[in-house]
User: Fold this.
Amino acid sequence: MSVEDRLELPSYLHHSEEVSARFAEIRKQPVVMRLSAVSRQFESAQGPVLALSKISFDVRKREFISVIGPSGCGKSTLIRIVAGLETCTGGSITIDGKEVGEPAADRGMVFQGYTLFPWLNVKQNVMFGLKMKGMPKPKAERMAMDWLDVVGLTSFANHYPAQLSGGMKQRVAIARALANEPRILLMDEPFGALDAQTRGSMQAHLLKIWETVDVTILFITHDLDEAIYLSDRIVVLGAHPGRILEIIDVPVVRPRHTDQFLSGHFLATKKRLEQLIHHRETSPKPDAGKLGVVAA
Amino acid sequence: MTHDGPQREPVAETSAGARAPAGAKPTGPRRRLLAVRAPLPPRASLVAGVLAFVLPFAAWCIVSYVPFVWHPLVHVRDAGDVNVPGEYSYVAVDQLVELEVFEKRNLELAKAHAKPLAGERANPVFLPAPHEVARAFYTAFTTPPLRKGDFWLHESLLQSCQVIFWGFVYSALLGLPLGILCGTFSLFSRLSEPFVDFVRYMPAPVFGALAVAVLGLGNEPKITIIFIGTFFQMVLIVANTTRSVDGALLQAAQTLGANRFQLMKSVVIPAALPSLYRDMRILLGWAWTYLVVAELIGEKSGISAFLYQEQRYRHFDNVYAGIVMIGIIGLVTDQALNFVGRFLFPWETGNNSLFRLFGQLKLALSSRGAATPEADPINDSQVLERMPIAPMTDAPEEEAHVS
Assistant:
C-alpha cells in the first residue's frame, strides 16, 4: 500500500466550491486558441512516424494550461507547431478564430535554453519585439522598463545577458515575450535548465506575473509538481503516437502557494498524473488507451 | 599581448587552487604550469609569451656567436704564402671557404713549410648574425637604393601595405555581404558556393599573367591577385561563420515578430559579427602570403622587389631585416585589430569603455541635454558596482556573474 492510498485522498475529479467557481468563470471567457485535430507525421527510414495524433483542445482567455507527458510524447513538437516554428501535417490551430502559420508576435515564446541576444543589454532585449513592430524608441524604452519592473530586474537594465544568472536570464526572456503583449505566451520547459531552488522561486514569480498581467499561458513541462502548482488545466499526452490521454481540471484552490503541495487535492492530482504517465511508460498494454480520455 | 584568452582569467586564476579535488596534493605553482586545459597564471603567461620570441632568438645567437656551433666556413684573414702552388692555391684573403678546403690548403702549406693560412670560423653569408641584421634594420632605411630609380625600404613597405590594403578591402566589400547571404539563404549558397569552391582550388598566382595582360603593369594586377587569393576563401568562411549562428536566437526573434529582413539585420549580422571580425583577422594574414607572389608578377614592386634586389646583391642582412619587417607589420596589425576588437564587442569582453565614450560624446554634443539619464550608457559603470545585490525573491544562488 502506498502512502497516498493510506492518506485516503479525495478524488481528483472532486472540485471544491471555490474551484468550481473558478472553472465556471474560465468557461465564460472567450476561446483564445483552438487546436483542432493537430497531427504531425515525420518521414523516417522505417516509414512514416506519427509524432502527434489528433490533438484537440481549447485555451480560454487568461487560462494557465500545461501540457505534460513522458519524453517522446511530442509535447515540444506541439508547442513549436503552435509557435509556427514547425508545421503540422494535419488539423489546424486558430487564434481568435484566425488560422496561424508563420511565427509571429501574437504567440510569444520562452524557450528552455537561454535565447537572449548576447549583444543587446537587458533593456534592449526586452525592447526587441517592440522595435521589430516599429515602435518609436523612447516609447519602447519606457515600456521595456515597465516590463523589467514586472519581473523585478529594473536595476539590471544595462547589463549584458552574460552577466546574469540563469534564473535572471529567463525572467528577462519572459519580460521580452510579454512586452509584445502576445495573445498567448508559450513556455517550453522554461525552468528545465535551472537548479531546484531557483526553479521554485521562478514558479512563484511566474504565478505572480500571471495574476497581475492579462496573459494566457501554454506551458510545457515534464515536472508533475510544476504542472499542478501552476495550471488551471493539464493536458496529459501519451507517447507513440503523441495523443491526449486526459485533460485534468486541477482541483487546487487559487491563489496557489507551496504549502498546497501536501494538500489532498494536490496529491490526488499528482497520483492521477503518475498513473497516466508512468503506468504507460512501464506497461504498454493494448487496452491502455481506454483510460478516461476527456476530449475538449 | 600574446595571450588573448577569455577575460575572466583573473577569476579563474584565484579559484584554480580551490578547484583542485579535496585531498589532492597542494597545487604548487609548478603544477599549475602544466594543468590540463586550465589558463596559465598571468605572470607565467606573460613570461611564456616573451619566451616565444626569446627562445628562437637565443638559438640564432648561439648559432651565430658560438664558434664551434655549426660555422661550416672559414673566413680567411691571412692567405699565408700565396706563392706555394697546389690544388687549393686559389684561397685568398677575405674569402669564405669551406672548413675542409681551409684544412687541405693548410696541409699543402705545411708540406712546403710555408706560412699557414689564418682565419676564423664563419657562417655562410645567408645567415648573418643578429647584430648585423639589427644594423641592417637601421641602415636599410637610411642607405639610398643602389640603383637609381629603385625604392627605399620604407617606400617599398608602403607600396606593399597599399596593395594588401586595397586587395583586402575589395575582397571584404564583396566577400562579406555575399558570404553572409550564403550563410543565411540556402538559395544564395547553392547559387554561388559550388563555383566559389571550384575557383578556390585554383592557386591565385595562376591568374598572374592574365591579370597583367588585362590590367597592365602597376598595382592593379597585384591587388587583383590579393583579391582572388582571399575573396573565394572569404565567401566560404564567412558563410560558415554565419551559418553557425545559434538557430535558437533566430527562432526567438521570429516569435518576437521579426520578419526576414529584420532577422538578417537585427539577429544574424550582430550575432556573427565578433566571429566575422576574427575571420577577417585570419584572412588578412593570408593576404600577406599572396603579397609576395603578387609583387613578383609583372613589374616587381614593394617589399618583395626590395628583398629580391638585396638578395641579388647578396645583402642578406637587408633581406632578413625586410622579412622581419613584414613579420612585425603583420604582428602589429593583428594585435592592433585584436586590441580594437576588445572594445568593439563589449558583450563578449565586458569592456564597454568605447560605448561609454560614445555616450559621453553624445551627451556633450546634445547641448539641450535631451538625453534621458536612464537611457544613458554612462550609468553602466554605476550599475556594475551595485550589481551583486539580488533583486526580489531570488534564491541565494541567484547571483549575478560579473565578468
Remarks:
- Residues 283-296 of chain A have pLDDT under 50 and may be disordered.
- Strands of chain A lie at 31-44, 47-60, 64-68, 90-95, 98-99, 107-110, 184-188, 217-221, 233-238, 243-249.
- The two ends of chain A are 34 Å apart (CA to CA).
- Residues 33 and 95 of chain A are 4 Å apart (CA to CA).
